[in-house]
Amino acid sequence: MQSNTVEVDSRPINFASISVENRTPDPFTVIDGHYVGHDGFVVPKNFDEFYERFPQYVRQWVRKHADRFAQPEDLEDWTQDLLIHLNSLPPTSKHWAAGKKDVVQTFDPRKHHGANSARFFNYINLCLANKFRSMHSARMNNPISRAGNVSLGGHFDESDSGQVDDEFCRAHSEHLRRRCQQEERQRDAIHTLAEFVEFLRREDASVLPVMGAIAATTTPVAAAELLGIAKPEFRGLHSRLRELGQFFLKPEMRRRRSAKPKPLSNNCETSATDPVHSCTAWNRVELYNEVWDQPLVKLSRKYGISDVRLGKVCRKLQIPHPGRGYWAKRAVGQTVEQVPLPEFKDAPVVKRLIRKSKPKIQRGGKIVPQKELCVNLCVNNFGKIGWE
């Protein structure tokens, strides 16, 4: 088969003979200490002259190169930082030896092949881009701007403003605050599990392998096969484990069941005698102002009661409330009339109950206390012993 390619002689190429860059510098002149390009553009002598002739150049450059979602405060801060950068040279700059004091004075038409307008502003744009890139990198590494870039090391250097300690992170970072709460829940769960295992070891150590099999498998049949016992025997051990779990939680469950609302007496007890419940009386004037400030449906959520119950309280205290269409007319800006609060000399004292609930967590749509959740996971949930 004949090839469709043509043989080419292999000849060495001398790269030294090829010119990489062949630029002809544009002519320029020097008039009164200013570089003047061939297009008539006069290069500013220093930053003060540059800012006097082009006061909005840096601000427009920032708006063009910044993110379109950037805040106006950030745009102004970046503009001022870039102006400061153009107005002064770093202490270690090599241009200090040549008598230069700012970035504008460092422009050299011999190195940049001319002094026309395009070459000068190309140099200014390059200086602004380098500084803006450095500012953006510092902002991305700042833990205040991005919470995921913080270091949790114990060493803290006060001279380094980009380094923070754990207390600062916990106070300022929502990400780390959630992380700390998650770790606290894990520690509490591990402590509860250790207490439950010790309790099982004291009461009936024969059910400990059952709890391990529940954690390692997904079904009761698989757990029985893992232990090498029959299904009826596993069901008996599993029932014993659940019974011990309920007994482990029995003190807390007894307290929760016995904490029923007590009948309210005329002299309402303070929360010091009843840590679960406390009561107070409705204030007629305050309730009147709140009723005319927002609908009863929204106001009832504030007090944890239904809007029907709140309406009954208003009728007992003779508090007028808005009728139908009031809030719709108010929403569209129509003039509505508010019924004044009538006098009620012998107004009854209507008590309301304030319930203080214990800290609870959400799992699978059901709210249960932390300790009960841990024990239920150990006893009943196959393959789900773990905490987020």
Describe this structure in words.
With about 400 residues, this protein is mostly helical. The chain has three domains: about 120 residues, Rna Polymerase Sigma Factor, Chain: A (Orthogonal Bundle); about 90 residues, no CATH class; about 60 residues, no CATH class. About 45% of the residues lie in helices and about 5% in strands. It contains 14 helices and six strands. The strands form three sheets. The protein has a two-stranded antiparallel sheet with strand order 1-2. A hairpin with a 2-residue loop joins strand 5 and strand 6. Helix 3 crosses helix 4, helix 5 crosses helix 6 and helix 9 packs antiparallel against helix 14. The protein is flat, with a radius of gyration of 39 Å. The chain starts with about 25 loop residues before the first strand and ends in a 9-residue tail after the last helix. The C terminus is likely disordered.
Topology:
Layout: E1 28-31, E2 34-37, H1 47-53, H2 57-65, H3 72-87, H4 117-141, H5 166-172, H6 174-203, H7 208-216, H8 220-227, H9 231-258, E3 277-281, H10 284-291, H11 296-303, H12 307-316, H13 326-331, E4 351-355, E5 361-363, E6 366-368, H14 370-379
Antiparallel strand pairs: 1-2, 3-4, 5-6
